Amino acid sequence: MKAIDLKALLQPITPSDFFKSYWPQKPLFIPPQPNKLEAIFELPQLQDVQALIEARSLKVRACLPDFDDEYSSVLLDPTDAMKGYRNQMTLVFDSMQTQSPAIASGLEAVRSDLGLPVGSENSLTRSRAISYATPAGGRTRLHFDANANFVIQIKGVKRWWLAPNTSVDFPTDRYTSQSGEIGVTLEQQCHAQLLDELPSDSLEFILEPGSVLFVPRGYWHETATEEDSISLNFTYSQPTWADIFCQSIHTHLLQSSKWRELADGLESEDQARKETALSRFEELAKSFAEELPGINSRKLHQ
To answer: Which of 205, 16, 245, 14 is CA-nearest to residue 117?
Structure first.
């Protein structure tokens, strides 16, 4: 059985063309190709909704149909999942990589081929494989994610609409339109009002079994399911230069005993202790500011 990697996922597009023309900011739709991703399509647990449920040991996330957003959901035991599906609830099977060696190895191979950094204790790039089982008529409300997603359509037909995000560059939080909920961090990143509906010139793609769709981080999208649908997503968090810098600096500082000292008294109710702690932090910060220009960035990231 042919291994899953970025080349297999993208064919007939080559990885070099993908990096040149699409990654990480431009969407890519690839129509079905004969015999593509056989290692995925032959998995018994992806043959239908019942097979997905029967192979499940973890809880299943069921999306509430009143809001059309996967984060408006409840957790169900697998024994109750089919009941939710029959009540027009999209079922979300998180952590599919824990259920299949083929999915796990493919997920990791694609991450490696993308060059996404792992970091200490796999803390930088969070890689997840998620399967979505959506009944006919199901929809997903307009939203964008802070992750990059590769969607593999397994069963049925799903219609996708995509539009570039002109409100915020490289968002680090997810947002769903008309939710009335926006985090402080995302609000600070926005430079224009967020959308309530797709623009008229949005892109439209029809995913049939075998189709692959790359949805970049931050790209607006919504979906409509024309017939019962199963898809498998490979999704990857997007480590920023700020993430790399902070983790590298943290690793560097812990090599020094003075930075490993307890941050003693920083939140003390004793004002004298608190002032001493603040002074100590200022002293350390100043010493590092003087040291930073001489630090080699390549050595820092090691």
So the answer is: 245
Length of the chain: 302
- Tens-place pLDDT, residues 120-137: 777 899 999 999 999 999
Give the Cα separation of 14 and 229 in Å (integer): 28
- What are the tens digits of pLDDT across the range 5-20? 999 999 999 999 999 9
Listed residue (209, 211, 214) closest to 48, CA to CA: 209
Determine contact, residues 230/239, Cβ cutoff 8 Å: no
Please state, in angstroms and rounded to a whole number, the distance separating the CA atoms of residues 128 and 274. 43
What HEC string does 28-83 produce?
EEECCCCCCCHHHHCCHHHCCHHHHHHCCCCCEEEECCCCCCCCCEEEECHHHHHH
- pLDDT tens per residue, range 231-249: 999 999 999 999 998 888 9
Q: Output the pTM of the full model.
A: 0.92
Quote the CA–CA distance of 223 and 231 in Å, as a whole number.
Answer: 12
Could you tell me if 86 and 134 are in contact, meaning their C-beta atoms sit under 8 angstroms apart? no
